[in-house]
Amino acid sequence: MARALIGIGANLPAGDGAPPLASCKAALAALAALPGLRLVAASRWWESAPIPPNPASPRYINGVALLEGAAEPAELLAALQAIENAAGRTRPYPNAPRVLDLDIIDLDGLLRDAPDPVLPHPRAHLRGFVLHPLAEVAPDWVHPRLKQPVAALIAALPAQDVRPLT
Question: Would you say 67 and 3 are in contact if contact means Cβ atoms under 8 Å apart?
């Protein structure tokens, strides 16, 4: 049974004015409803400063979901993008503030450089807003390319403005 780690993030209100936390919770519910996959665990919600730093960008809400089931990378990516699009996601420029962002962090240890999605996520190991919630749902996770456990990756992070909401 495949194991997928999905990063969830948002820092802009939804089109209906709902705050980013509500968008993240709705995305988690949408992930739980994906055919062929089962939501096994969800992290707490974390708040973080944008990376790269952008004083004009609101803080992010982030979490990680652990799903199990049958998942083909391109199909899973398309399903995540459909959830983002339904939430009103636009992509005006790289690292733009967003209503919703869903990323495949890892898909059963698969190494994939092309086509999209690149796996594991190429910057996940550098981001506290990914690693801290990931450690909550998969404390035994080892980065498939770097062969380092999540705890070691967290210990190696430079200082980042990340804290749990609860």
Answer: yes
